[in-house]
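Lab notebook, bench 4. Still working through the backlog of constructs that have no structural model yet. Next entry is a single chain of 174 residues. Request: give me the structure tokens for it.
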Amino acid sequence: MLNHERRPASSRATRCALVLVVLALGLRMEAQRMITSQYDNARTGANLHETSLTPRNVNAQHLGKIFTLPVDGDIYAQPLFLSGVEIPGKGRHDVLFVATEHDSVYAFDAYGNPGSPLWQVSFLKDGVTTVPAADAHCPFIAPEIGITSTPVIDPSTGTLYVLVRTKDRPGRRA
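Model written out:
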């Protein structure tokens, strides 16, 4: 569970953009990874290489919340994971990538050390805001709509692909 704070959004013209965040990362190909929703493009949700979790040890006595991480909005997208990622100026980390409805993407150390982001990118700049839920007539996601779908990571290029929903202020030229 990740902690967050909510921030209201307002504006008029809605747009949808596919945005590429190019990561300057050195990725180890042999490392365990979760680079798309539900482990694979077939969306099976199966990790066929899992060796630690078993029906015997997956229970309330062995699993639970270890720590929380601060983000700026609600999380609907599945967090992604890569081990052994070289973060410029911060060393090698197992990284948890988290996208929020406040149009931000975070990279955290997967073990909460440090508890602050290794990096964070916001797509809200120059009068661009998230889409208010009322504008999209969406009863399920509130108060704002930003990054809802799970991003995808291409480890061969170090690129994270993310669908960002934004709204321009009236009269703004893109």
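Notes after review: The radius of gyration is 17 Å. The helical segments are 133-136. Flag for follow-up if needed.
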